[in-house]
Amino acid sequence: MEATGICRRYGRRWAVVEVSFTLPEGSALMVSGRNGSGKSTLLRVLATAIRADRGTARVHGLDLRADREAVRRRVALLGHHSNLYEALSALENLQVSARFLGRDPGRRALGALLGEVGLEERADDAVATFSAGMRKRLSLARTLLQEASVVLLDEPYGQLDPPGFRLVDGVVSRLRGQGATVLMATHQIDHAAALCDHGLVLEEGRVAWRGRAADLPAEGGLVAVGLPEGASA
Amino acid sequence: MAEPLPRRGPGPALAFVVLGTLLLLAGSILGLAVAPPENFMGDVQRIMYVHVPTAWNAMLAFTFAFGCALLFLFQGGWKWDCRLEAAVEVGVFLAVLLCAQGAIWAKPTWGVWWDWDPRLTTTAVMVFLFTGILALRHFVDDPLKRATWSAVATIIAFVDVPIVYFSVRWWNSLHQLQSSPSTVSSVFHLPLRLNAFGVLFLMIGFITLRTRTAGLRLQGELAPPLPEPAAAPGLVPTRAGA
Amino acid sequence: MRELAAALHKEALLQWRTRVQLAAIFVFGASALLLFSFAIGPNSAALRLHAAGFLWLALLLSSTLSLAESFQSEMEQRAFEGLLLLPASPLALFYGKALSNWLQLVLLGVGLVPVMVVLYDAGTLRLPGLLGVIVLGAAGLAAPGTLYAAMTAQARAKQTLLPLLLFPLVVPVLLAAVKATSLLILGDPMEQARSWALLLVAFDAIHWSLCGLLFGRVVED
Amino acid sequence: MGYLEGGWEFVYAAYALSAVAFVGYGISVFLRFRAERARARREAPGAPEVSS
User: Which terminus of chain D has fewer Cβ atoms in its 10 Å neighbourhood, N or C?
Assistant: First the structure.
């Protein structure tokens, strides 16, 4: 994946300014930064949920603007919104997505996927009855269902309990093991640093720091993330 | 989305307004004082000298808005959005005026303020169609969504107008046959032409100035354009990690 | 085609889960029919004369509720955006939604007919014709209604905006459907109902294609 | 259909209404333009106006 000069306006502000990076296939990038620094906007641009006002990115050589549909086939986004139907059950939500993907996995396959995110027992309950953390887990399952080669995770740890943290860690490791490229926007620097090889810190939409994810605390990038120097996230 | 916003000072707009006013004054004096009364309608026919130009220009304004909508959707550019906003508003203004003039015409002619004449009724429907678009613009805050949606709504509304016209004509003709106002007495075309150009220039002036207002507002809503990067984007990708 | 099937599957699931809502909207339409009769007074001849108009007004008022509801579940957690990113084609999503709204309106219309017959003594034996008019009229409401509901669901003042945009647009539908229905009820010596139905067909054809074409621009950033 | 006598009051009403409408709308357009221009200048003093 290769991003070049991505800019995106959000109302009267530029949420993302001239963000460029190259990410080799199969590697993982941690995107960090304070609230409102442009992490989500960047991920949404890369997922083609919104268009860049300037600049573009190529995913497996496919252009974000020109080959939108092809990019969408290869990219999955776990965003802030759960993208779920409140009225439908967990299983039905996955079924709906699967049908659009041209697959019709049986109840068993989807049940296994739900089991993976710890929702097996609630498969037939309406999402409206779910807690925030359970919705996150179900969204994660929905993201996995896409079997995308590039996975964008926006705050994957948000609203999750400690077992949920381990779940996300496990999922990311497994995705990487399968050769997928992972982009993760998060404040959980210690978790992310262990999982990702590259790191990017945004400040007011611009790249404030870039380097190896593991070096972030040592190199003083923490200030940009909003943590005092030397603190452990 | 490209940056360009329309730029034009109030100067040209005012020039159009002055020119339009002069033409309108001349045409109206001719129409009121010099033109002979018409054979059947008598002096009431004189209303046509201002009514018909309003009708033509209202249609022209909506047609222009339709063109702006197409250009915005298929070519892009904020200027088309600003022009669309101006044209729709001016069109609604002219259409409302048209309805009022039509009612004033209808009273002495048909004895009622409102007759379900296809043209009058279609104009009234058009007022509501395009007022809805102005309301839509008012209630959507994101400039890009506002622009796209109002362009889409304008296209649909414009395409709907002829269907409305024919359905009303049909609907009305089935229970009564109505004499529609003949466009204008053939005796005297000069005041009509003068007024038509008068309203046209006034309209151009209004749309120009209104476009500028929309542009200024849009400018206040959008982040200022970023300076172009030193090197052309796409040529010098930086590497994450290293 | 496969995507359209997927979209219809989704709509069927959603419709089934929200069937109580449809019942509530039906009750709303029926109560509107009841209220219209109070506006006329207990004059059975006048009521019968205006029955067709009231039926379609009731359906039009109910339609804004059901159309707005149909995008509620799509927008609250951005499920719709999730589908677009899968990717699902906007065209399939539009026609799925429009067909489902169409069906819903037909059901509402068919449900309101007996209420009309009872309240206004406006029966007809030409049931296939009546069903045809309802089907065509509902289609005319469904296509632009679906497009506008997708817009207004994301705007402020959505409750006001949808009828404001939709009502003037569907004037031809209202005219033609009321005329045709009323001809069916009151007798149609000159066989005019067919030409009104033709007008509805023309309106439907234009708007089902135009709205489908433009829908992608409405939902994509 | 016979010849319509009189009706001058309707003619005057139509012309007066149109004149008032054009003047009124024109003033409204101009005032809104002035207010918007003033706002733009206030928010970005000295900034060049966006040009095409």
Answer: N
Instruction: Classify residue A53 by burial, with Cβ atoms within 10 Å: 0-12, 13-18, 19+.
Output: buried
Share of chain A above pLDDT 90, in %: 73
Domain assignment present for D1: no
Asked if the Cβ–Cβ distance from A99 to C13 is below 8 Å, we say: no
Q: What share of chain C is helix, strand, coil (3-state, %, to 5)?
A: 85, 0, 15
Contacts of A71 (CB under 8 A, 6+ apart): A48, A59, A62, A63, A64
Contacts of A85 (CB under 8 A, 6+ apart): A92, A93, A96, A127, C10, C13, C14, C73, C74, C77, C79
Beta carbons of B209 and D33 less than 8 Å apart: yes
Domain count, chain D: 1
Residues in C touching B126 (Cβ below 8 Å): 168
Instruction: State whether A21 and B142 contact (CB < 8 Å).
Output: no
Q: Which CATH architecture has domain B13-34+45-218?
A: Up-down Bundle (1.20)
Residues 203-222 in B contacting D (C-alpha not used; CB under 8 Å): 205-206, 209-210, 212-213, 215-217, 219-220
User: How many domains are contained in chain C?
Assistant: 1
Q: Which domain holds residue C21?
A: 2-219
Q: What is this structure's pTM?
A: 0.91
Instruction: Note if the bond before C87 is cis, omega within 30 degrees.
Output: yes
> In this model, does residue B235 exceed pLDDT 80?
no
pLDDT in tens, chain C (221 residues): 889 999 999 999 999 999 999 999 999 999 999 999 999 888 888 999 999 999 999 999 999 999 999 999 999 899 999 999 999 999 999 999 999 999 999 999 999 999 999 999 888 888 999 999 999 999 999 999 999 999 999 988 888 999 999 999 999 999 999 999 999 999 877 788 889 999 999 999 999 999 999 999 999 87
Q: Provide the residue range defining the domain that includes D18.
A: 13-43
**Length reported for chain C:** 221
* Structure tokens, D10: 């309707």
pLDDT of residue D1 exceeding 70:
no
First to last CA, chain B: 33
What number of helices (H) and strands (E) belong to chain A? 8, 10
Please report the ipTM that was assigned to this predicted complex: 0.91
Q: Tell whether B142 lies on the interface with A, counting CB pairs under 8 A.
A: yes
Q: State the chains in contact with A (3 or more Cβ–Cβ pairs under 8 Å).
A: B, C
The DSSP-derived string for C78-142 is: THHHHHHTTT--HHHHHHHHHHHHHHHHHHHHHHHHHHHHHHH----S-HHHHHHHHHHHHHHHH
Query: Phi and psi of B143, rounded to 5°?
Result: -60, -40
3-state secondary structure of A154: strand
**In Å, how far are A30, A49, A70 from A74, measured between CA atoms?**
19, 14, 7
- Predicted confidence (pLDDT) per residue in B171-194, tens digit: 876 544 444 455 545 557 888 899
